[in-house]
Design a protein that fits this description.
By secondary structure, the protein is an alpha+beta fold. The chain is 30% helix and 40% strand. It has helices at 2-17, 19-25, and strands at 27-31, 35-41, 45-54, 57-58, 64-70. The termini are far apart.
């Protein structure tokens, strides 16, 4: 659990620091020796997913969802 909380703190810092780039690109990632954190920002949802890395290779089979939010649009009549 401590590992996930640590990854969430890192993701929160990156989200706040690079939000304009994430918004512009739609998909954005940050990789270290041990982790790759993917940010996705679409019209109707946003998500942050971390993947473990070993020897420079990302293990796509073990995603850890750090945040996922569906945006709900309100129609004003």
């Amino acid at each position: 659990m401590a590992k996930i909380n640590h990854l969430k703190r890192i993701a929160d810092i990156l989200w706040n620091r690079f939000y304009d780039e994430i918004k512009h690109e739609g998909d954005w990632f940050w990789a270290t020796r041990n982790w790759e954190i993917n940010f996705t920002l679409e019209e109707d949802r946003e998500s942050i997913v971390a993947y473990p890395r070993k020897q420079g290779d990302t293990d796509w089979s073990k995603p850890i969802v750090l945040s996922e939010r569906v945006r709900k649009w309100k129609t004003i009549v």
